[in-house]
Design a protein that fits this description.
Layout (H helix, E strand, L loop, with lengths): L4 E3 L15 E4 L5 E3 L4 E8 L7 E7 L4 E10 L6 E2 L4 E5 L9 E7 L5 E2 L5 H7 L5 H7 L14 H25 L3 H20 L2 H20 L2
Antiparallel strand pairs: 1-2, 2-9, 3-8, 4-5, 4-7, 5-6, 6-8, 6-9, 9-10
């Protein structure tokens, strides 16, 4: 499975006072989440430090309800129709959580809980990188989300590209850690250095860093 299943359906552990109505996947913060079915966004929530934290409820075409919890960023709004493969948001560590992960739950049309284990692998495979290198970077960015109209389009693009590149480094590092721990650890450190350089240095230095590192990421991704 692309992302490790850390908590199965029905589990009762010391960190919970109730049965686990879903499955959990260990994944880095900022991992892109995509729906595996067509459906309509029924509810978007933010419970702060409680429960699911930031979550999305998707009513699937068959009447079932898919629940995505502990997100860092939500990219959809209530009433929006999604097709399979569309981006829902970015995974995170919000709400009552002991570490970065995705909680995925399902309910039947009558509101009773369903065991999502049979489709867990599809959910995992739909998460993370996809749709080409450009989408890999830019789908995570902040272009169009700024309230301050004085911020230039160049700066918006730069910030989006920088954040996308950082998240991409983390995704690659996560994927390599199990088989090549040294390289995975190196890329994680490099991601931290990259984001500091691109945010705290001049734009020319930042663009140079982003461009050079982007070539390295592309080469690693092309050969992985």
């Amino acid at each position: 499975m692309k992302f490790r299943l850390t908590s199965p359906y029905g589990e009762l552990t010391e960190v919970r006072d109730h049965v686990h109505h879903g499955v959990d996947f260990a994944m880095p913060e900022g991992t892109t989440l995509r729906t595996i079915t067509d459906g309509v966004i029924e509810k978007v929530v933010d419970y702060g430090n409680n429960d699911l934290g930031k979550g999305v409820f998707l009513r699937n075409e068959d009447g079932t309800l898919s629940i995505y919890g502990h997100l860092n960023d939500v990219k959809v709004k209530v009433g929006e129709h999604l097709n399979a493969g569309d981006v829902i948001g970015l995974s995170g560590n919000t709400g009552h959580s002991t570490g970065p992960h995705l909680h995925f739950g399902m309910k039947a049309p009558d509101g009773s809980w369903l065991d999502p284990t049979p489709i867990a692998e599809k959910v995992a495979e739909a998460s993370g990188n996809g749709g080409g290198l450009a989408n890999w970077f830019l789908e995570r960015g902040k272009v169009g989300t700024y309230e301050n109209a004085d911020i230039s389009l160049t700066d918006r693009f730069f910030d989006a590209f920088s954040e996308g590149l950082y998240a991409s480094f983390v995704d690659i590092a996560h994927g390599l850690t199990n088989v090549m721990p040294e390289i995975g650890g190196f890329l994680t450190i490099a991601a931290g250095i990259l984001i500091m350089v691109t945010r705290n240095s001049g734009k020319w230095l930042g663009w140079w860093s982003v461009s050079m590192t982007g070539v390295i990421v592309w080469l690693i991704n092309a050969n992985s």
